[in-house]
Structure formats: structure tokens, C-alpha cells
UniProtKB/TrEMBL annotation:
Organism this protein belongs to: Bradyrhizobium icense
Family according to the record: Belongs to the NifU family.
Any one GO BP annotation for this protein: iron-sulfur cluster assembly
Domain of life from the UniProt record: Bacteria
Name of this chain's protein: NIF system FeS cluster assembly NifU C-terminal domain-containing protein
GO molecular function annotations of the record: iron ion binding; iron-sulfur cluster binding
Domain named NIF system FeS cluster assembly NifU C-terminal: residues: 22-84
InterPro entries: FSCA_dom_sf, NIF_FeS_clus_asmbl_NifU_C
Length: 96
């Protein structure tokens, strides 16, 4: 039974580091988007799904799908695992 609590402690630490890495990648991209009048905010993380909200000029931009693909590719590269970037509408607060 002593092993079980240790196993429960490890996943949150791993998830926290993973979340920090995801946030860092998005923060690297944001200045480029902001220069063009847009932005990208992390909304939530559910396993391999990363939900983001595009705002400003990104909402109606014809290249927004290419932007999302680029962010997804960078996340996959940094995390070393496949993740899916999912654009969502309406949610503005990132989960901490």
C-alpha cells in the first residue's frame, strides 16, 4: 500500500512540467501573432488534446489553420509526443 501514494504523487509533477512546456511554446508564438493584431490563449489540456482560443485578427484570418498547424508541430516536437491542437470559441480563461 505504500507504493500507491507515491504513484499518485508522480503524475501531477509530470503534468505540471508538461503544462509548463505547452505554455512556453504558446508564449513563444504569441508575439508574432500580436504583431499582426491577433493572439492565442491556452484554454485547457485534456490528455493529448490542447485547447486554445484564437483572438483578434486570427479569428477571421484565412491562414489561421496554418498557424494552428505550426503551433501543433512545435508542440509535438518539444513534447516528443503527438498532441492535437483544438481551437475553441468562447472560453477565455486558461485552466491553471
Amino acid at each position: 500500500m505504500l507504493v500507491e501514494p507515491e504513484q499518485l504523487k508522480q503524475p501531477p509533477v509530470i503534468e505540471t512540467n508538461r503544462e509548463q512546456l505547452i505554455r512556453a511554446v504558446i508564449e513563444e508564438i504569441r508575439p508574432n501573432l500580436q504583431r499582426d493584431g491577433g493572439d492565442c490563449q491556452l484554454v485547457g489540456i485534456e490528455g493529448s488534446k490542447i485547447m486554445v482560443k484564437l483572438t483578434g485578427a486570427c479569428v477571421f484570418c484565412k491562414l489561421s489553420s496554418a498557424t494552428l498547424e505550426g503551433i501543433q508541430a512545435r508542440l509535438v516536437e518539444r513534447l516528443g509526443e503527438f498532441v492535437r491542437l483544438i481551437p475553441v470559441a468562447g472560453a477565455t480563461n486558461a485552466r491553471h
